[in-house]
User: What shape does this take?
Amino acid sequence: MRTAGWLALGVMMVGGMTLAVSRAAEESPAPATEANAPPPTVQPPASSVPVTPKNAAPPPSVTIIGASDAHGVLGRDVLSAANEDMGRIVDVIVDRSGHVRAAVIDFGGFLGVGSRKIVVDWNAMRFGKIVNRKDSITLELTKAQVAAAPEYKEDTPMVVLGASGSLQPLQAVQ
Assistant: This one.
């Protein structure tokens, strides 16, 4: 039922945007004064010739993703393969091209006191079955490995902890 609702909403949004662009294209310019009015010409009906303004943006594309196909990860619990609590995902790190590189995990502490942020390679995580908010993500690192990692601080170079050296260094932009 939820998927049908989102599908209907998406179709209505695309239809509404198409109608708005169509109506804007059909509006006629202000009438010319008699002194510089061009001779009258016969125009075909607007419905037979599609008219698009020169600078009109095309309508956006719409993609429907089923509720069972994708899930958010922020705030999700992270466990080790040995079922140890590793913390929760608090941020996602992307490179300049928008590709996901790593996740920031709030690790250690108790109720947020004494915790620190650790950066782990995105490929070191296994998402398996994450159907609802209670399902966790598995990290292919031990608690000792994560505990030994340096703390992440925004806007400083970061050390990304990866499973078996799977992370490739980011190429410097020249």
The longest helix spans residues 2-26. DSSP finds two helices and seven strands in the chain.
